[in-house]
Amino acid sequence: MLLYLRLLKESFAFAINALRNNKLRTLLSLLGVTIGIFSIIAVLAAVDSLDRKITNDLSGLDKNTIYLMKFSFGPSDIPKWKREQFPNVKYDEYVYLKGTMNNTAQLGYQIFTKSETVKYDSKVVSDVNIVPVSAEFSEIEALDFENGRFYNESEANSGAKVIVIGNEIATSLFDTADPVGKDVRLYGQRFSVIGVLTKKGASLFGDSNDSSVYIPVNFIRQKFGDNNTSLTNVIVFKPVEGVDMEAYKAEISQKLRTYRGIKAGEIDNFFINVFSGFTDLIDGIIGSMKLGGWVISGFSLLVGGFGIANIMFVSVKERTHLIGIQKSLGAKNRFILFQFLFEAIILSVIGGLIGLLLVWGIAVGLTKALDFEFVLGLDNVLLGTGLAGIIGLISGILPAISASKLDPVEAIRTGM
């Protein structure tokens, strides 16, 4: 054991010596490994950071959440002209389904509308995301409050002029003052602030809660009516845990078809979108990004492997005389083999560590420059180091075998 530790120490010294004596040649040889490890780990770190951000953005929603609306989340076999004729879901359908659906934890109603301006005294915030929803959305989206509360069912049903504001809106309008109990102006009318949401950060999917405000859906219905074509309505279902999703979707379809009077043989004029389908699509995209990163970076690693093999063959040739002396003094073939093998691995790992250091530096810089956290996880660091070691092992095996098989007499004579 002590012999191999000493061997490892000597191999490390030879590797460092190669870097010192042949800086340009060694660095050029290591460049392939550095670029390869940098490429793979940079892609994996970026994808992992993106995956973490997506998971955080969607953490408030159950994968079984269902969106009933006139549009489909994904591709559809129904012709576009026919889909364009589908009616918006109506508030009375929401009331009907809420009273008749089984196995439902929460059922809410939402209207998608355009952004507006919110004012408080002389302060104005433009392009605010308006979210008109029923009272159930506090539970459906698992909203967190820094202060105050969400509006109750009575306030929602009456279309009361109450408002829940995002953290960014609160800061822009009120600075450090408590917004709860104060009035803001929206749609030319006064709304009383009853709640402030906890800061969540930028979202990858549309507007963040930080730059959004929630108001009772019935206020929008009273203002614009139920047949306004510029608005998109959606009924959101949160089924109880463990429900048979296919049976649950079939129940929604059957009840709404009956309510709308759709005859047997006619297609549904609505779409039942399950949130898990959306997340599965995202998972597929992330998986493809990872695969693409591996394929592209694999070529760099291949070039890096050839570079390590080249420098090791040169090292064997330069130290032929020393190998002959070692063998004449009793060094075994195995000792010579491990000596060069360790050296190849150490050189490759040095190249890999340089690549990891570059990824870390870029991740820190981008995190500070952008409102997005890039994370270089320990698993990716270990993966990068392990890959570098494997590249060194594969690249160094042939030069190490050739060195171990040298005849001591011929080696000493060649060296002289």
TrEMBL record:
<keyword id="KW-0472">Membrane</keyword>
<keyword id="KW-1003">Cell membrane</keyword>
<comment type="similarity">
    <text>Belongs to the ABC-4 integral membrane protein family.</text>
</comment>
<feature type="transmembrane region" description="Helical">
    <location>
        <begin position="382"/>
        <end position="403"/>
    </location>
</feature>
<feature type="transmembrane region" description="Helical">
    <location>
        <begin position="335"/>
        <end position="362"/>
    </location>
</feature>
<dbReference type="InterPro" id="IPR025857">
    <property type="entry name" value="MacB_PCD"/>
</dbReference>
<feature type="domain" description="ABC3 transporter permease C-terminal">
    <location>
        <begin position="295"/>
        <end position="408"/>
    </location>
</feature>
<feature type="transmembrane region" description="Helical">
    <location>
        <begin position="291"/>
        <end position="314"/>
    </location>
</feature>
<dbReference type="Pfam" id="PF12704">
    <property type="entry name" value="MacB_PCD"/>
</dbReference>
<feature type="domain" description="MacB-like periplasmic core">
    <location>
        <begin position="26"/>
        <end position="254"/>
    </location>
</feature>
<dbReference type="InterPro" id="IPR003838">
    <property type="entry name" value="ABC3_permease_C"/>
</dbReference>
<feature type="transmembrane region" description="Helical">
    <location>
        <begin position="27"/>
        <end position="47"/>
    </location>
</feature>
<dbReference type="InterPro" id="IPR050250">
    <property type="entry name" value="Macrolide_Exporter_MacB"/>
</dbReference>
<keyword id="KW-0812">Transmembrane</keyword>
<protein>
    <submittedName>
        <fullName>ABC transporter permease</fullName>
    </submittedName>
</protein>
<keyword id="KW-1133">Transmembrane helix</keyword>
<dbReference type="Pfam" id="PF02687">
    <property type="entry name" value="FtsX"/>
</dbReference>
